[in-house]
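Can't paste images in this forum, so I'm doing it all in text. The chain is below; anyone willing to post the predicted structure tokens underneath?
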Amino acid sequence: MSEDHPERTPKAWAAECLTLLQQIDPSYRRNRDVSGRFIEFVRPDPTGLLVSQNFIRIRSVYYLCYALCFSTLRTGWLYHPLFAGSRFDHNGTIWQQFEKDVGVCRGDAGYPAGLWSFGEWRSNSMALLARGFALNDEHLFPVYRRTLAAGKGRLIALFDAAHRLIPSLDPQVPVLEQAARLGVDPAALESFPLRAAKLDAFTIARGGHCYVGGGPSSNTIDLDTIPPEVIALHFADTFRLNSSRLAEILAIAEAL
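Text version of the structure:
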């Protein structure tokens, strides 16, 4: 809320954004599973995925992200395998997504004019967002959708492992202590490279080497060498939250 414009509340922001999005696609709706500083709008894709245009609000600034989701429940992980793109990440907004995932930066040929990434609610914000929302659907959606389809074998293997292993976990016992019983090497599950990697469905679908931070660009982990069972248990908390939908999530991956 602005002192000069007390009507510019987060509730009003969400209502204005939903109106704009439904002009682009009438199936956009508010995701009521998130609240507070998190604002998300989703629409269904024929595959069963949900397309997400989402904000995290920090003080008076709104940060916009875009994702394709197998589930839109909030988890404790900023990155996890049930979405491709970015959700509620003020360090991973639209501009960063175009640079990192599409491979174009401002000033490059093919960089679309009118992207909206973050800002306060100003007099022209909604006009800019109307353009920005449409560009996200036009440019980011096909990149994520093609990549998920091309790498769906990796996702199917992961979701199949989660479907098999997660119901066998004892919620009263730490996952690491149960790894050996489930045929997973505890050392692999606890390894720093796996814990440092920012793994979402987009990264997993691409496979190969993934940067794990901590210095030079050579600090990578080869995702194709990590058994899907290890990644499934690494994200056990996320898969547990979606335990009733694991068969459906697997079916969505198979339909990509």
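The CA atoms of residues 18 and 118 lie 17 Å apart. The two ends are 41 Å apart (CA to CA).
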